[in-house]
Hints:
Elements: H1 2-22, H2 28-69, H3 73-80, H4 82-92, H5 107-140
Amino acid sequence: MLVFGFGLGNCMQPLVLALQNAVSPRDIGVATASATFFRQIGGTLGVAIFLSILFSTVGDKVQTAFTDAQSSAAFRSALADPANGETLKGLQGGFTNDSSGLDRLPAVLAHPFKVGFSQSMSVVFLCAAAVVLIGIVVVLFLPQVEPAWRVRPAGRLRRPGRRREVGAGRS
């Protein structure tokens, strides 16, 4: 989270400045507002898409982790305990809606849930890395725009050979 926050924080302002330098001074407000609007839309869609990926894969990943865990003797003995069986039955239908029952399970029984969830998060992070890679490729092909503070306005340029003397009056 620290790396993500540091990277995002150091990208936001330079991107806004680059955008403002790419448009005419008359359109800076519209460009900045549009960038903010599309950033918000992108954030909303990103959260929706990545959570959809997470919750569409978590069920299969947890089931696979349970299948793998059943080969362990400690897991089978914890599963045979009647007190743990009731808690597991309560989790069967609503793990994605309420995972608070995992706290009441022994660590050996909660482990497959945690493994399945972490594997689903890995899928989400790989998808996010692909999106970042696409973004980097797009940025590499953007044209370079000279910062506005380096370019002199056209009205301020002097013509060669026409120096005006200090204190000279107009005629």
